[in-house]
Design a protein that fits this description.
Blueprint (H helix, E strand, L loop, with lengths): L2 H9 L2 E5 L6 H16 L3 E6 L16 E3 L9 E5 L11 H4 L5 E5 L10 E4 L6 H11 L6 H14 L10 H12 L4 H9 L4 H11 L3 E3 L4 E6 L1 H7 L9 H6 L6 E9 L2 E8 L5 H7 L3 E2 L3 E7 L2 H13 L2
Parallel strand pairs: 1-2, 1-4, 2-3, 4-5, 5-6, 8-9
Antiparallel strand pairs: 7-8, 9-10, 10-12, 11-12
Helix pairs in contact: 2-4, 2-5, 4-5, 5-6, 8-9
The structure holds guanosine-5'-monophosphate and manganese (II) ion.
Manganese (II) ion binds next to loops.
Length: 316
């Protein structure tokens, strides 16, 4: 099944690995695990991410060749784009990647575009980390601690600690295997979820004061403004987990966090419980994602955007 990938890895020496802007645990863990897998095969891998690693993932064993802002120049024997449903979401410099080497797209988003020469897209996989494990297994790539802890974190965070509907038996099986390579579940959980700077909670207080619910408390919405970031001396990465937090309200089916990017432009994060498909709604606004976790960017004032979201969520 992974014959073409095997040919590319066996026949090449220099590889680029990248993912989407605002990388999450699956994006980072997947890129870093593939870096260590290729490094272990004595290949020469590079990782490019448009945005920096958020503080909660800084404990992960990092590539020595890690580039931010712009992809490094040169040509590659393979360019792996991981966990990224749309080509443009690689960010700066993505256009020229197509002339820098063959693109291998590995992803689990339902809304994924087939922009690679090879596309391994499995929307039944819990995470991109799960697909990568299957590749390592098929190619008999030895698992080191550095590979294991990154893969574990990819799967652990993308399943919301094995709570979201994408949690499948493979997720448990692979994570259990990773503990055999030295991964401590308690350590990963503590680093990811119990290691926040105090300022995050001051920001959370501000954000919660904007909380509104609609449709008999089935939709919850909160806003983060640039002013709140400024006032609390925080930044975007401090909001990780906020949308999941308001989803914890009893009866809420859809939770929405609106993050101000610039005047009249907001990044929307949407989460749902059960069958409500937020990827479909975000797709309507030019975004995408998964059934229970999706996002998009919308232009307009807070009031205009709230109205458009309410309309999209309530129309039959
Ligand atoms: P988040 O809300 O954490 O940024 O994203 C949730 C999910 O939706 C992730 O799987 C992410 O890749 C996807 N996503 C978020 N924003 C966008 C977007 O603007 N376009 C697309 N296609 N997917 C998005
Ligand atoms: Mn993912």
């Amino acid at each position: 099944m992974f014959r073409k990938i095997k040919q590319i890895i066996d026949g090449g020496n220099k590889f680029l690995i990248t993912t989407h802007i605002d990388p999450d645990g699956d994006a980072i863990g997947s890129c870093f695990s593939l870096y260590w897998a290729l490094d272990g095969l004595q290949k020469n891998p590079f990782v490019y991410m448009r945005d920096r690693v958020p503080y909660m993932y800084e404990f992960l064993p990092k590539p020595t060749q890690l580039f931010y802002n712009e992809p490094p120049d040169g040509t590659y024997d393979g360019i792996f784009i991981l966990d990224c449903g749309n080509f443009f979401r690689v960010g700066n410099g993505h256009e020229r990647l197509k002339s820098q080497g063959p693109i291998i797209n590995i992803d689990h988003h339902a809304t994924s575009e087939k922009f690679g020469i090879i596309n391994i897209i499995n929307q039944n996989s819990s995470s991109t980390g799960e697909i990568l494990y299957n590749i390592y297994d098929a190619l008999m790539i030895p698992i080191s601690y550095n590979i294991a802890v990154n893969l574990y974190t990819a799967i652990f965070t993308d399943t919301g600690s094995f709570r979201y509907p994408n949690t499948n038996s493979e997720a448990f099986l692979i994570c259990e295997k990773m503990t055999k390579f030295g991964v401590s579940p308690a350590h990963v959980a503590q680093m990811v979820y119990e290691n926040h700077p105090k300022e995050r909670f001051v920001l959370l207080g501000e954000v919660l004061s904007s909380l509104e619910t609609y449709e008999n408390d089935t939709i919850a919405l909160a806003v983060v403004t640039k002013e709140m970031f400024h006032k609390t001396n925080t930044a975007k990465e401090y909001t990780e987990g906020f949308v999941e937090f308001i989803k914890e309200i009893r009866g809420v089916n859809v939770a929405i966090l609106m993050k101000e990017l610039s005047d009249n432009q907001y990044k929307i994060s949407m989460r749902s419980k059960g069958d409500t498909d937020v990827a479909l709604i975000c797709n309507h606004f030019g975004g995408g994602g998964h059934r229970n976790a999706a996002g998009c960017t919308i232009n307009g004032s807070i009031i205009q955007i709230k109205d458009r979201l309410k309309e999209a969520l309530t129309k039959p």
